[in-house]
């Protein structure tokens, strides 16, 4: 189980990497509700590399703010690979940053189903003029807070990977 202290360290390492590479980043968050942005901006000097965070908790916000097609959400559900990819790509466009990470999932305690259980989270990191990478995690029913913290860890790892640094 990841801790907030471990996330602070990973966020600081990522901020250093982004600064060295001259990259700007944005976040597009649903189930984490801004926690990824919060861990990044906890680090002194993060303003040199962090542009903005989008908390798009509702489907309407995903569509209106990030340009995620409503028919994509209707076809696959908000918690899906296609929507995570569209969120990340939409954040890069909207923020005009080099990289963006997206998180969409089911933190619990309710909202899960057999097909999409509690603890299912989809992540994507998009890089301007580069590939969008995706990761799916099934953390299980660890409790809402722990699912969200584990999700921050994966999001930081994906940003590090998208920045071209080893994770």
UniProtKB/TrEMBL annotation:
InterPro entries: CinA-like_C, CinA_C. Gene3D superfamilies: CinA-like (3.90.950.20). It holds the Pfam family CinA. It comes from the Bacteria. Residues 10-161 form the CinA C-terminal domain. This is Nicotinamide-nucleotide amidohydrolase family protein. It comes from Microbaculum marinisediminis.
């Amino acid at each position: 189980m990841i801790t907030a202290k471990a996330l602070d360290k990973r966020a600081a390492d990522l901020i250093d990497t982004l600064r060295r590479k001259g990259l700007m980043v944005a976040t597009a968050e649903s189930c984490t509700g801004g926690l990824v942005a919060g861990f990044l901006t906890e680090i002194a000097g993060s303003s040199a590399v962090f542009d903005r965070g989008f908390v798009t908790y509702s489907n309407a916000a995903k569509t209106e703010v990030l340009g995620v097609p409503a028919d994509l959400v209707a076809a696959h559900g908000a918690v899906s690979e296609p929507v995570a990819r569209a969120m990340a790509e939409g954040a890069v466009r909207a923020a005009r940053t080099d990289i963006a990470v997206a998180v969409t999932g089911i933190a619990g305690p309710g909202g899960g189903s057999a097909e999409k259980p509690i603890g299912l989270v989809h992540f994507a990191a998009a890089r301007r003029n580069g590939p969008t990478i995706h990761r799916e995690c099934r953390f299980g029913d660890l409790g809402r807070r722990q699912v969200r913290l584990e999700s921050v860890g994966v999001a930081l790892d994906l940003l590090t990977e998208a920045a071209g640094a080893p994770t």
